[in-house]
Amino acid sequence: MRPDDLKTKIFLDSGNPMETREALALLGFLDGQTTNPSLVAKNPQVKRKIERGEKFGLEELKDFYKEIVREISSLIPAGSVSVEVYADRNTSAEEMLRQGTEMFSWIPNAHIKYPITSAGLDAAERSLAEGMRVNMTLCFTQQQAAAVYGATQAGKKGDVYISPFIGRLYDRKENGLDLVKNILRMYQDGDNHVEVLCASVRNLEHFFGALKIGSDIITSPLAVLKDWRTNGKKMPEEKFMSYARGTKIPYEELHLHHDWRKFNIIHELTDTGLEKFAADWNSLLR
């Protein structure tokens, strides 16, 4: 069951409904699940097909993704399921919105994942105007988070997530949890319509660190949730400080109500992440 002192929502990061079932059995609860093209590529059914030397047609792959998402949604109907559009650096806002609109119709509890690019933010702004929910992904800077806040002001709490990828910052010897802390601090001056979803959680240390600083949501692979269960689903101790590793990311004084287009949203890890997701998706196509 859910620990009484747990305020953070716990999501599973996986494109495999079998892992959804396992996480539910393991924890006794699950607040949501995040998916992306790379996780779809890791789905056991997909891997078996590729190992046989077979690939998907585009519509066939989209239908497979839809089936996965619908199965996950049926297992956690009260939770959120994030579904990601295909996007590379050349994908227009119109194309992202077209995909997002279609994906949002797949299930009743979808959040559509858009990248934090100019086109992605434009698509998100228009999606919210049409009554959709969004998850802005591949966040690596506070400026990107400020832009997300500005572009999504039509949303209310529950409509908008932002996903800072802490593990990829730690790969560069930067303190990824500093970014989460900075975003949470900056959003205190706002209306709480954006929830911070800590992503790219690689280990229990990252998980406990995100709990400690009060991330609204944490999405983790099944292995990390298993480790948490082994530790009794405990909250981090008051003295827990071991997350403070890597180069410190300083806080920036930013004004949330500026035009989102005025913020610097460029970051090489966002570009790299887009390329990786696109490559993993395209690798499945014949």
From TrEMBL:
Pfam families the record matches: TAL_FSA
GO biological process: carbohydrate metabolic process
Xref: InterPro entries: Aldolase_TIM, TAL/FSA
SUPFAM superfamilies: Aldolase (SSF51569)
Key words of the record: Schiff base
Signal peptide region: none
PANTHER family noted in UniProt: FRUCTOSE-6-PHOSPHATE ALDOLASE 1-RELATED, TRANSALDOLASE
Protein name in UniProt: Transaldolase
Source organism (scientific name): Candidatus Wildermuthbacteria bacterium RIFCSPHIGHO2_02_FULL_45_25
Lineage: Bacteria, Candidatus Wildermuthiibacteriota
